[in-house]
Amino acid sequence: MAFPLLGAAMGLATLIAGLERAQFLGTAAGVEQVSDAGSTIGALTTNLAAITGSRTATSSYATLDSGVESPHIDRWITRLTTSLRGDFQQSLQRMEKYEGMITAKLDARGMPRELIYLALIESNFNPTAKSPVKAVGLWQFMSATARQFGLSVGRKVDERKDPAKATDAALAYLDQLHDRFGSWYLAAAAYNSGQGTVSKALRTVTRRTTGTDADFFRILPRLPKETQEYVPKLIASARVGSAPERYGLAMAD
Questions:
Q1: Bigger pLDDT: 34 or 201?
Q2: Domain check: are 213 and 160 in the same one?
Q3: Which of 64, 70, 127, 237 is deepest in the core (most CB within 10 A)?
């Protein structure tokens, strides 16, 4: 893997250096070289992206991981790569069935691809999963919220169990939460515990109604215990799942 990466990077660097020299000299040949180089640069950068692209995120997409560090995240990374290692690997394998559909919908909305790991946490990618509190489906919608976002919920038809329709509803909800709070971490917290819970914690701790990813960890002690673990688990799952080999998780071909 290192050799194609090196070759692509060197090729791109050489071409850019040549273009800079041609532009500096201002020759007619240089102008032609600049004009004709777009497709070559495009091919090289595409090659680099293909080589370096991770499982669910590339530099051309929004990202969930803002780089905020926390012992809560570190503990989940340790758990996912030790005591929960086998279960997490199985979850990643289950994710493959829905990954293309979900990431395409995330891309279309300009949302972070890593949000797919929210479905992993919610249902382990089981579209018929039902919780003790009667949340249903891949994204574990309660019936009222499901209807609010356009899903039919009844005895004969329950679209919470339809992976594509439920994903559309979940992403619309998450997008709305992100617009409301200004942070994907806070949006995920609200998805788990409700908008009112996050709003109250923000007002109490920050005196504001919106916040940053770092603010999630400031308000963490005022959130329900489940939510205190939910967001760090989401971040850790995204980090490990996006680069499993880096964390020593061998994935089946």
A1: 201
A2: yes
A3: 64
